Amino acid sequence: MTPLAHIAALPVRAYRLLFSPWVGHGCRFQPTCSAYALEALERHGAIKGSWLTIRRIGRCHPLGSDGYDPVPGSDPEHDAKSNRNQT
């Protein structure tokens, strides 16, 4: 992870340490948004990882989708299925 990505991951780690135990385990997606954020920052760096995280959190609302939603590039089989469905 780049130094800037480490800094960007600090709020996510703080959330997991301080707030996540109080919020509970009612996440709509697998992996959870905080796990997704840490993986996105590690895999794609601070800028793109932060953008992916913001997009993911934006999809997390009552009218949004749910289910398996991995970080792009972490599951090539899922990425290939997503690309076939978009064309």
Automatic annotation (TrEMBL):
Membrane topology: Peripheral membrane protein
Entry-linked InterPro entries: Membr_insert_effic_factor_YidD
Chief location: membrane
Keyword field: Cell membrane, Membrane
Family per record: Belongs to the UPF0161 family.
Entry-linked HAMAP family: UPF0161_YidD
Function: Could be involved in insertion of integral membrane proteins into the membrane.
Name of the protein this chain belongs to: Putative membrane protein insertion efficiency factor
Gene transcribed to yield this protein: yidD
